[in-house]
Design a protein that fits this description.
By secondary structure, the protein is α/β, with parallel strands linked by helices. The protein contains twelve helices and 14 strands. Strand 13 and strand 14 form a beta hairpin. It starts with 26 loop residues before the first strand and ends with a helix.
Amino acid sequence: MDKLRDGMNWAPKAETPKPVVKKGEFIFASAFFEHGHIFGQTEGLLEAGGVCKWAWDPDPKKLADFCAKYEGVKAAESYEQILEDPEVHLVTAAAVPCDRAEIGFQTLRAGKDYFTDKSPFTTLEQLEEAKKVVAETNRKYMCDFSERLHNEASYHAGELVRQGAVGEVVQIINLAPHNLARDGRPEWFFDKEKYGGILTDIGSHQFEQFLYFADAKDGVVNFARVDNFFNKDKPGLEDFGEASLTLDNGVSCYCRLDWMNPAGLRSWGDGRTIVLGKTGTLEIRKNIDICTDPLETQVIYLIDGEGEKRIPCTGKVGFPFYGQLVLDVLNRTDKAMTQDHCFKSAELSLLAQKFADEQNAKR
């Protein structure tokens, strides 16, 4: 598959890494390689100056391939070996979604911080248990919402909106088409009990962005819908989802998620976010600015009282979140992301999925 269309193994690299620590000051491990996002998570921490000491996966081939990719990483004999190493500050993982919570609990109780791929949970019960374990251990349960955190345009757009570039935010729209690539997907991808549903899975990105761009703390689900339009032979798959929310500060939000990325697109998805403010409008072209040749990615369009601006971001912003996370782990601060923000993003996606599932059950 064309690398640009392979969303499952999408792992951006900063053109100029910006370490925030000296070598050896931050030690982490990577584990459970069920999703290719593990490579993005690992790259982000390495570029921030972290040292990946250990790797672990129950599949010997996946483990060997990972260790071959990253020089100096040691293959652990078990996950417990990683948890018993006092040098390890944090474990980053991309397990089967339904297993991520229990792995996280085990990690936190071993005295390590945990950085999982999205979605961090597949049930509300897991989320409630996570709150208890975080309170019990005083460790971090973080999630890599990479659609904002590992995308230069999305990250910079957040900075612009927070600086007042569009004035008071009124509405946020997220569009998130994804490339299905059925033949390359593992079996759990088509099992709703294991991935949690499209609003819980892809949607966790969208709800995190709603809260961040609106600078909100909570929200209410007004409407949610999921369906399987074009993959009836895979009844566990939801290839379409949408949801409407009103946040606690009055901001209106809508997202559409799907596995219907057109075959002719040069990217794995034409992801877009539109932020409407009182004095301006901002649009993020996250993965591709269509019809550009040569291909351009990660671009912001900003219209304000002064005029129209096109802001290319690739290679100019980097990925500051990962360095902030490293420092948060070492200093026990919350500058990269608060635990409440992480958990509330997940909660809203889970509530939207529940709303949609209940509507389908009434049919």
